[in-house]
Amino acid sequence: CSQCGKTFRNCGGLRFHQRTHSMGGLGC
């Protein structure tokens, strides 16, 4: 997931998507 706008499915799952945001913008 390289962009915030991508759905959690494209980020490997909802848990991974939330993790990228909580880790300080890994996917943002």
From TrEMBL:
InterPro entries: Znf_C2H2_sf (IPR036236), Znf_C2H2_type (IPR013087). It is found in: Nucleus. GO terms for molecular function: DNA binding; zinc ion binding. Residues 1-22 form the C2H2-type domain. Its main location: nucleus. Coiled coil: none annotated. It comes from the Eukaryota. GO terms for cellular component: nucleus. Keywords: DNA-binding, Metal-binding, Nucleus, Repeat, Transcription, Transcription regulation, Zinc, Zinc-finger. This is Zinc finger 287-like protein. It comes from Oncorhynchus mykiss (Rainbow trout).
